[in-house]
Design brief:
The structure is a single chain. With about 325 residues, the chain is an alpha/beta fold. The protein has two domains: about 200 residues, Alpha-Beta Complex (Spore Coat Polysaccharide Biosynthesis Protein SpsA, Chain A), CATH 3.90.550.10; about 110 residues, no CATH class. The chain is built from eleven helices and ten strands. The strands form two sheets. The chain has an eight-stranded mixed beta sheet with strand order 3-2-1-4-9-6-10-5. The chain has a two-stranded antiparallel ribbon with strand order 7-8. β1, α1 and β2 form a beta-alpha-beta unit. The chain is globular. The N and C termini lie far apart (about 50 Å).
């Protein structure tokens, strides 16, 4: 009978005092406990480290590694290097784990020795109407995978063999996109992947406009530093170039053209709402309000993206590297 491999859980954190207790409780409640938990503190200025340290008294096999201000990829790399075991699970701050999360990931890997990486599922914490609308505007819906339905691969719900991390060179040193680049390298090298929709985590999303703007302008700025423009920036730029052309035609030819940009935003919004109608928080009676708020958020996030782009153009290509870990 094959012996179950020991697992190290690696978690980068920074200023997570408001949410870390929820994550710690969910780790302690796992039906398959990790053999060690390595928190990598990447420059917290709050009580994150102290709260984690306090859980040692509760019996959790916790290590805290402080590396000073650093980006998430660098923090994950430091955690993997510190890990005692050859199988690594990843999650993040701002996450709550389902009680069977690690067990499900482990079972998926043990079903076949050829499996190198297992991706679990995730859901947004849509516990307010605002967050429900934001989830519709930004979070992809589940799709068939792993014998069920789950969202796209998510580094904060994953398990892999340490040699895979070594072979692809670890995570690149970026504030954003480092996880996508890492996962693309794994896929590009042909490693055996498995997906388990039952290995689920709950992911915090911003609960107000300030948080939304900060997150998405930051994503935009750091995606550009990482050279990632094709999937987000260029398509949105093309849409707004077409909208400006329609406005110009509205002045030059016919007022009918003024309606086209509004119609385009409305179609984007309706599409988002339709594909999210299967979510547990969805309420048919709220559809008109969903359209208004989600539509505004789509436009607001587009503006945040352009704000991040402007910051990038003004500050140059690598300003964030002067002080790793800053937004």
């Amino acid at each position: 009978m094959e012996t179950e491999p020991k697992i190290s859980l690696v978690i980068p954190v920074r200023d997570e005092a408001r949410s870390i207790e929820r994550l710690l409780r969910s780790i302690a409640a796992q039906t398959r406990l990790p053999d060690e938990v390595i928190f990598v503190d990447a420059g917290s200025n709050d009580a994150t480290r102290e709260l984690i340290e306090s859980r040692r008294d509760a019996g959790l096999p916790v290590k805290v590694l402080s590396i000073g201000p650093a980006y998430p990829g660098t923090a994950r790399n430091a955690g993997v290097k510190e890990a005692s075991n050859d199988v690594i699970a990843f999650t993040d701050g701002g996450i709550e784990l389902d009680k069977d999360w690690l067990k499900e990931l482990s079972v998926s890997m043990s079903r076949g020795s050829a499996v190198d990486v297992v991706y679990g599922n995730y859901s947004p914490r849509a516990d307010t109407f605002f967050k429900q609308c934001l989830a519709m505007a930004t979070v992809p819906p589940p799709a068939p995978a792993g014998g069920g339905r789950m969202r796209s691969r998510f580094i904060a719900s994953s398990l892999l063999k340490k040699p895979v991390w070594q072979a692809v060179g670890g995570f690149p040193d970026y504030r954003a996109a480092e996880d996508r680049i890492f996962m693309e390298r794994i896929e590009g090298q042909g490693y055996a992947l498995r997906f388990n929709p039952r290995a689920t985590v709950l992911w915090d999303i911003p609960g107000n406009l300030q948080g939304v703007f900060g997150r998405f302008s930051g994503y935009s700025y750091h995606d550009l530093i990482a050279g990632r423009t094709i999937g987000w920036h260029i398509p949105v730029l093309k849409m707004y170039a077409a909208a400006l052309a329609c406005i110009g035609l509205g002045f030059a030819a016919s007022p009918v053209f003024f309606a086209l940009p509004i119609a385009g935003l409305a179609l984007r919004t309706v599409k988002k709402i339709v594909i999210n109608r299967g979510e547990p928080y969805f309420r048919t009676g709220y559809v008109p309000l969903y359209c208004i708020v989600a539509g505004f958020l789509i436009f607001f996030i587009d503006m945040a993206m352009f704000a991040g782009w402007l910051k990038y153009l003004l500050n140059g290509r690598h300003p964030a590297r002067r002080k790793p870990g800053t937004a």
